């Protein structure tokens, strides 16, 4: 994985020193909150309901054991013993004192981590497929390109004061696990007919109060043109993106208001000016970055098949975990493992200090020292020999992280909601917990099959509710929490925005409503292999509306 | 009725104005029963903000139940108690003082 060079080290150290000085000046009263606020946001420090919150960048969700151990250390020393992994593949700490943040950033810098550009109107952490470098269906590892984008976008003078925040995601497979069409720029790494690498480029996706699916503006962009083309997009956005209205300032609004043909024309025209100049990526530079992502040497471990077969017979729980949380690796003797941070009734995405340390130990011992954070708020061991799967499973059981629910209804994405967030209008975590408990039976969850349930506690949609097969949006109505349900959303290669199904539900009603929706689906699906999303696309909202609201219509 | 709330600058912890200072619990916060009292609290909040003691200063609606001040809105109830999903954290993790009569 990527290792800092001298420039990176010096840059991060300089930023720690600079922000430490700013914090000291703020605490001494030498600068006002109005002056300090943009500075703290540029360094990932928010003020939430109970305390400050620090958001730490995990570039494209990749980290090593040493870094994960440091996160555990920070949780224990400066916070309250836990952290929250986010839908942007980052981690947040909910309780740091402002006066401790310089020390936290210094600790992070010692393991090549930081909190730069995790907030503010700049290019945020570039995200990628969490199975990058391991997935059997991958054309190439998307992370070297995400790293090139990270280097280019870090304190980019032209793009540090954009109309609004800007998010880029990269996937290297046809099956999109990085939700690229919900990003400001989505990049699909692929090969053309000549076998050359390049990108399909999507622009203008986003969620929030105006959800939009990104539009493809180029089917194939040669890899050497990555930075010049992204610069062209950002320039058009920086020039024409609205700065008069925060809610209309994202590039999705510009694309929508201008029209995709005209935006494409503008981007292409800008690109013509840039494409053959200094932003063209030299092959040597691409290779140099690629070298940082050289996959670990995967020795042949053919004994895995027999070991897995035997262990399956021995343990039903292991067998179920294998079916649900383990996916095919490009090397037949290996697998990629999802460590669910969605234990039944637990807080989605939360992990304790000791869990982080134990996961780091497992990664070091069995997974070539590599970990990922997924945008679905789980952790990933990308390279595990099949022969070691049982040992990994047993170690996860010991720390309570062996829940076999990846992609099932209890694998819920949830934002922090009103339990922590200053912007939230309703709680989301308790709703996730109650639904998880209602569907606690793994047998029942597996009978239901793949179902992506996503919950946001306000219209900003950090919990991705718009693209949940079932989405739940919590709002405040007449002083109470009300939960609006959307159906039919999806964040994969067939991205769609869910449709509001009808009136909202109170906190007491919402779990029953979800159960009603699931039961309706089970009753109408053509076969167990017809997933919820496929069934919904076939039948539309009518049967679900009927199930949820028919009694009310008749009564009225 | 209203009380004055903010977050402490140094650690961001939620605080409420009580008895000439900033208390870590809402129960004993100074009550404003009328516009004049609200104006007084607002002036105190503005001064404390200007003096870099606190940030995010607000007047919030409250009621008094069994001698204790309680916020009206759920958001403020959660600020005053802690996350509803982690009763071991936030103010709710420690015993609340009873407001003097």
UniProtKB/TrEMBL annotation, chain A:
The keyword 4Fe-4S applies. It comes from the Bacteria. GO terms for molecular function: sulfite reductase (ferredoxin) activity. Residues 52-110, 335-396 form the Nitrite/Sulfite reductase ferredoxin-like domain. It is an enzyme of class 1 (oxidoreductase). Keywords: 4Fe-4S, Heme, Iron, Iron-sulfur, Metal-binding, Oxidoreductase. SUPFAM superfamilies: Nitrite and sulphite reductase 4Fe-4S domain-like (SSF56014), Nitrite/Sulfite reductase N-terminal domain-like (SSF55124). Transmembrane segments: none annotated. The keyword Aminoacyl-tRNA synthetase does not apply. Pfam families: NIR_SIR (PF01077), NIR_SIR_ferr (PF03460). Its EC number is 1.8.7.1. Residues 119-273, 410-548 form the Nitrite/sulphite reductase 4Fe-4S domain. This is Nitrite/sulfite reductase. It comes from Mesorhizobium abyssinicae.
């Amino acid at each position: 994985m990527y290792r800092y060079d001298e420039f990176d080290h010096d840059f991060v150290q300089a930023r720690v020193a600079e922000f430490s000085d700013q914090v000291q000046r703020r605490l001494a009263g030498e600068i006002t909150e109005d002056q300090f606020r943009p500075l703290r946001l540029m360094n990932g420090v928010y003020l939430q309901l109970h305390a400050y919150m620090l958001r730490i960048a995990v570039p494209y969700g990749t980290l090593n054991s040493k870094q994960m151990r440091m996160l555990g250390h920070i949780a224990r020393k400066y916070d309250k013993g836990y952290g929250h992994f986010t839908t942007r593949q980052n981690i947040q700490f909910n309780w740091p004192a402002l006066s401790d943040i310089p020390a936290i950033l210094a600790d992070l810098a010692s393991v090549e981590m930081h909190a730069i550009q995790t907030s503010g109107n700049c290019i945020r952490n570039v995200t990628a497929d969490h199975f990058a470098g391991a997935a059997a269906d991958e054309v190439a590892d998307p992370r070297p390109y995400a790293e090139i984008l990270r280097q280019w976008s870090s304190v980019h003078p032209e793009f540090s004061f954009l109309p609004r925040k800007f998010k880029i995601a990269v996937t290297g497979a046809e099956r999109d696990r990085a939700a690229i069409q919900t990003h400001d720029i989505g990049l699909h790494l692929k090969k053309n007919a000549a076998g050359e690498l390049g990108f399909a480029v999507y622009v203008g996706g986003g969620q929030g109060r105006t959800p939009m699916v990104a539009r493809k503006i180029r089917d194939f962009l040669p890899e050497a043109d990555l930075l010049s083309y992204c610069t062209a997009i950002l320039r058009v956005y920086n020039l024409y993106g609205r700065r008069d209205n925060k809610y209309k300032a994202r590039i999705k609004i510009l694309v929508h208001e201008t029209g995709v043909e005209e935006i494409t024309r503008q981007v292409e025209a800008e690109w013509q000016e840039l494409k053959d100049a200094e932003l063209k990526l030299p092959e040597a530079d691409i290779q140099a970055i690629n070298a940082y992502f050289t996959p670990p040497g995967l020795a042949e471990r053919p004994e895995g098949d027999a070991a897995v077969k035997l262990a399956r017979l021995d343990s039903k729980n292991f067998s179920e975990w294998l079916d649900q949380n383990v996916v095919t690796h490009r090397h037949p003797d290996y697998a990629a493992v999802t460590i669910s941070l969605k234990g039944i009734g637990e807080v989605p995405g939360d992990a304790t200090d000791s869990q982080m340390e134990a996961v780091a130990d497992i990664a070091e011992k069995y997974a070539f020292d590599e970990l990922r954070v997924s945008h679905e708020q789980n952790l990933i061991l990308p390279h595990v020999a099949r022969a070691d799967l049982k040992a990994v499973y047993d170690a996860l059981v010991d720390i309570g992280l062996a829940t076999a629910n990846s992609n099932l209804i209890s694998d819920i994405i949830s934002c922090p909601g009103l339990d922590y967030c200053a912007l939230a209008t309703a709680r989301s975590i308790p709703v996730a917990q109650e639904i998880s408990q209602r569907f606690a039976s793994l047998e029942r969850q597996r009978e239901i099959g793949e179902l992506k349930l996503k919950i946001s506690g306000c219209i900003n949609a950090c919990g991705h509710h718009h693209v949940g097969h079932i989405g739940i949006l919590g709002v405040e109505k007449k002083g109470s929490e009300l939960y609006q349900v959307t159906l039919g959303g999806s964040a994969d290669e067939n991205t769609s925005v869910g449709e509001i199904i009808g009136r909202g539900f109170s906190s007491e009603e919402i779990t029953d409503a979800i159960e009603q929706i699931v039961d309706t689906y089970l009753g109408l699906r053509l076969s167990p292999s017809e997933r919820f999303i496929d069934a919904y696309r076939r039948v539309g909202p009518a049967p679900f509306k009927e199930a949820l609201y028919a009694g009310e219509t008749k009564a009225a | 009725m209203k009380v004055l709330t903010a977050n402490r600058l140094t650690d961001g912890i939620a605080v409420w104005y009580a008895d000439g200072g900033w208390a870590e619990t809402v129960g004993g916060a100074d009550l404003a029963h009328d516009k004049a009292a609200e104006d007084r609290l607002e002036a105190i909040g503005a001064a404390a903000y200007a003096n870099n003691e606190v940030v995010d200063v607000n007047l919030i609606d409250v009621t008094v139940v069994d001698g204790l001040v309680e916020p009206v809105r759920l958001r403020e109830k959660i600020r005053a108690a802690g996350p509803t999903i982690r009763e071991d954290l936030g103010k709710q993790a420690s015993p609340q003082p009873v407001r003097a009569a």
